[in-house]
Amino acid sequence: MATHTPDTKMAAVNVPDDRVEFAIKEGLADDAALQFTPAQEKRIVRKIDLRLAVTLGVLYCISLLDRTNLGSASIAGMQKGLGMSAHNNGYTIVSLVFFISYTVFQVPAVVLIRTVGPRNFLTFIVLAWGAVMIGFGFVPSWEIMCVLRVILGALEAGFYPGCVYLLSTWYPRFDLQKRNALFYLIGSLAGGFGGILAYGLMQMDGLSGLSGWRWIFIIEGLVTCLLAFVAYFLIVDFPEDSPKSWKFLNEAEAAWVVARIEKDRSDTLPDKFSVSKYLKNALDSKVWAFAWLTMLTTTNSYAIAYFLPIILLDGMGFSIAEAQCLVAPPYVVAAIVMFIQAYFADKWRMRGVVVAGNALLGILGLALLGYVHSPGVRYFGVFLATTSANANCPALLTYQGNNIRGQWKRALASATLVGGASIGGIIGTTVFRAKDAPNYRPGILTCLIANVLIVIIVVALSLKFHRANKRVDNGGKPIEGLQGFKYTL
């Protein structure tokens, strides 16, 4: 077969502005797959990783920091300063209301990112919620903080599903979990080091007449606004979009990116948007199964994020400084395990087994945390529970992404998946109540049940996928309307 250099092939055809669609129609995308050596292909993927997985991961880090720093602010004096108590459940209500607007705005937000474009949409909402975070530092009461939390939830609603959706459009199915893990690993730094950062910011107590907990919100809000400006120049839009987003790749590299997505799942170009076509995808049962899995996982992850500092302080008897700093080690271990899992899950093409295995690990960790008296053993349980919940987040993103085809189905599935995550946030922030200290047994039991249900749902999906793959092997009806497509177990 004849070979050619990338520049020669693409220069000869004068590719127009809509070059991706042109390349597919003219067969250039298929040829593009033959233009690069493995080393050149790796360089192209590294460019994409830096512009997408790393940039979005940093923004996700600040997103998690902004939505979960209530725990750190709480033990820094916020509850006392705003009059929160076990009687009025102020802390629980402030934690909860975020997820109401976060859930409501999920589905329309994903439609907006498809129509407005990821760069414009994502950077705008990051800038806006940064401004809201600054406002948190000046609230006079917890009721006003509730209002700001509702606004924050509405703004953040489009961020996570938008990132998940954008990443899934740029990578083939069996390259995706490592990128999801990188994205989530960078984000999880917020959980690991947010407490240490908060402890440092607490030392600004009294500066300009403001309490230390207020400076936590103000400084983190300013950092968020700064990152939004930087991200505008780094984030790229969808692979099939205009050349404005392709400045970091030339035409041949762009065609190669499209070629491997087309070869993997043949859904690079989206259909024209239609409300009925978009919502029709909701009839697919696996869309809701993935949403349930995410809801159950985030019940654990949000409960840990919001209440771990409080459990370490009130439940295990550590000091404020110890409680802030002891949050970090479990998240560091979780990040290491998460990335090792991602590497082997992509290599061995496993998804469901990883998800179920993490849930079993979570059951063990929660049992130690909730039903053993020794602080050392309970803290070891925190490691297991934190690793389980956080490692399962990118694993679930990839499990879903590997088994969904079609741009609008992918968009809806991303929205329902993150909608499930927000419902999990509601559950996770309400089951740990102040009156249940120091053991918080009802919350622990809820998280245990969630992990058991994860295992059951994964087993049911695995049976469904195995039967469908066997049907295809026997020449039966294609999966997801694509001949040769098979589910990833």
Automatic annotation (TrEMBL):
SUPFAM superfamilies: MFS general substrate transporter (SSF103473)
Chief localisation class: membrane
Domain Major facilitator superfamily (MFS) profile: 52-468
UniProt keyword Cell division present: no
One Pfam family it belongs to: MFS_1
Localization, UniProt: Membrane
UniProt superkingdom: Eukaryota
Key words, A-Z: Membrane, Transmembrane, Transmembrane helix, Transport
Record's bilayer topology term: Multi-pass membrane protein
Sections of the chain in a coiled coil: none
Stretches that traverse the bilayer: 50-70, 90-113, 120-139, 151-170, 182-201, 213-235, 287-308, 328-345, 352-373, 379-399, 411-431, 443-463
Cited PANTHER family: MAJOR FACILITATOR SUPERFAMILY (MFS) PROFILE DOMAIN-CONTAINING PROTEIN-RELATED, PERMEASE-RELATED
Name this polypeptide is given: Major facilitator superfamily (MFS) profile domain-containing protein
Organism the protein comes from: Exophiala sideris
Highest classification ranks of the organism: Eukaryota, Fungi, Dikarya, Ascomycota, Pezizomycotina
